[in-house]
Every structure is written in structure tokens, then in C-alpha cells.
Amino acid sequence: MKDVFVITGGTGGMGFAAAETLSDRENTVILLADLSSDALAKAKQALDEHQAEVATVTCDITSEADVTYMADTAAHLGHITGVIHTAGVSPSMGDYRKIIAINAVGTVNVDRAFMELTDHRFSLVNVASMAGYMLPKLMIPKHAYKTVNRDTEVLYHRLVQHCQVLPKKNRSQMAYPLSKNFVMWYTEHIAPIYGSRGAHVVSVSPGSFDTKMGKLEKDKGAGAMVNYAAIKRFGTPQEVGGFLAYLVTDAPAYLTGTDILIDGGVVGQLRLRDMLRPESGARRLGGGA
Questions:
Q1: Domains and CATH numbers, the chain
Q2: How far lies 111's CA from each of 64, 115, 138, 151, 189, in Å?
Q3: Helix crossing, 171-195 with 152-163: angle to 10°?
Q4: N-terminal to C-terminal alpha carbon distance within the chain
Q5: Nearest to 15 by CA among 206, 188, 176
Q6: pTM listed for this prediction
Q7: From the CB of residue 169, how many other CB atoms can be counted at a distance below 10 Å?
Q8: Which of 159, 43, 17, 150 is nearest to 96 (CA)?
Q9: pLDDT per position in the chain (289 positions), as tens?
């Protein structure tokens, strides 16, 4: 039976780079999932010369029906070995409600869809963001996060309401770090469920990367954070894509329920700066990233 790797946002910079890394494996099927059928066709064509078989599925991750169909498709292709969930949007790609729906609720939909399809050879990687570290602890609504156990609609409305305390012009800038902080929390939250099946789940928080989405934030948000990095440049899609691909191999199987920063040292440098100038930290973090 072939190993199947599912990559949501598979036509984007990080997702496609992960697919390229995995595409040199034999006895492997890569299932690319994305919204655009045209983009999927182009991505498949670009990968067809490699050893792995490539399949595609059009999927809106905010739709439970779409995500269930994606998971069922993967199950029919072979043994689901890994899921790399990169699909998401940044502040420049939609209003705060869209950001919450895709980044937070979409992640719940994807992660839940594969829970019953896992075994000890399964790995799940959720892509969060270094922006998730930028929220002050007092602004992290874990009481709202916990509503995910009741209903994703309740979760959605609670997170939307959390953004609505700010003026309209600032809500997208709040929704992005909030949604990505939720991804980090949810990864930790579901780790025991996956662990009971011998599977592992981690989140990865990229910093400023030279992807299409990253370029949208070049003059603000993640782009501005390069100024604080220990390595003062944008990362390449291959640097993060290769790491995502590594995480769905057997090598890090004991790594679970945690977030991994791959941000060029931004968060570490900001923490150091805030230790030296604590009075400035709360004001900076309150602005989002």
C-alpha cells in the first residue's frame, strides 16, 4: 500500500515546497488540496516528473463536507501517513471574519477529519505563525478556545467577538495572530487524542518567508519583523517546506503537542529587547503582527 501525504494549500509557497521534497519518495502519493482547480493542475504538472504519484482535490477547508471528501479521497489512495496543513490567509487577504473562518475553524475541520483515519504511522503538522506569539497573555481568550469542544460555530462567533472590541480598521490585524495562536493551542489540545492512536501532531510557526502571501505583508506585519530577526532576510519556501516534509517522516515521531518556531530568531530577539525595555513590550505586542 502506498504512503499518502495530504497537503492543504498545496499550490502555495510552503505547501508546494513541502510537496517537492516529498515527491522524490517511491511508493508515495501526494494529494494536493486547494481552492483553485487551475492552480492545482499547474502544481500537479510541475510535480509529475518526480517519482511520487500526484493527485489533487479542490477543497474549501471552511466546509466540513469538502474536508470530509478530501480525507475520504486520501484514504482511497493508500495509507494516510501524513497531513501538512498549510492553508490559511493573512491580514491582507480578507476581513477578520474570513481570517477566523479559514485559519481557526478550517484547522479544526482538517484536524478532526483525520482523527479516525490515523494509526502509529501518522503525522499531522499544522502551520501557525510567529504572529501567534505576539499576543500578550492577557489578550489570549482560552475560555473562547475551549468552546471548540462544544461547536465550531460557537468558537467562530466567540473569536469574531474578540476582534470586535477593536476599531474596524484594526480587526484583521487582531484576527491573524489570534487565529494562529488558536492553531498552536488546538494542536496541543488534540495531541492526546492523536497520541492514543500512536500518532503525533505538531504546529510550526513560520516567520517572514518569501512566498506570495509573505510578499503581501512585506511592508507591514511579518515583513516588518525582518528588522528584528537574528537572520535579517526573508526565509525561502524550501527552508520551511523541507522542514514540514521532515516532520511527517518517522524520525521525529516522539515530538508532539508543541509548536516549533522557524522565524529567523525574531521572537527570541523581541523577547530579549522586551527584557531590556519592559515598558515598551506591552505597547508593541498589543499592535498585532
A1: 3-286 (3.40.50.720)
A2: 11, 7, 27, 14, 11
A3: 150
A4: 44
A5: 206
A6: 0.91
A7: 7
A8: 159
A9: 999 999 999 999 999 999 999 999 999 999 999 999 999 999 999 999 899 999 999 999 999 999 999 999 999 999 999 999 999 998 888 899 999 999 999 999 999 999 999 998 899 999 999 999 989 888 999 999 999 999 999 999 999 999 999 999 999 999 999 999 999 999 999 999 999 999 999 999 998 877 666 555 555 666 667 777 888 888 899 999 999 999 999 999 999 999 999 998 888 888 887 766 655 444 444 333 3
Residue 8, C-alpha cell as written in the block? 492543504
Instruction: Please name the residues in contact with 124: beta carbons below 8 A apart, sequence gap of 6 or more.
Output: 82, 83, 85, 111, 114, 118, 194, 199, 200, 201, 202
Q: CA angle, corner 77, sides to 75 and 82, nearest 5?
A: 65
| Contact of 219 with 94, CB cutoff 8 Å | no
Q: Strand, coil or helix: what is 22?
A: helix
Distances (CA, A) of 137 to 134, 149, 166, 286: 9, 22, 17, 10
Kindly give, in sequence order, each residue whose CB lies less than 8 Å from that of residue 258, ignoring residues fewer than 6 positions away.
Answer: 187, 188, 202, 203
Closest CA to 205 of 233, 229, 183: 183
Phi/psi-derived region of residue 264, left when phi > 0, alpha when psi is between -120 and 50, beta in every other case? left
8 A C-beta contact, residue 51 and residue 27: no
Per the structure block, which three cell numbers stand in for 221? 506585519
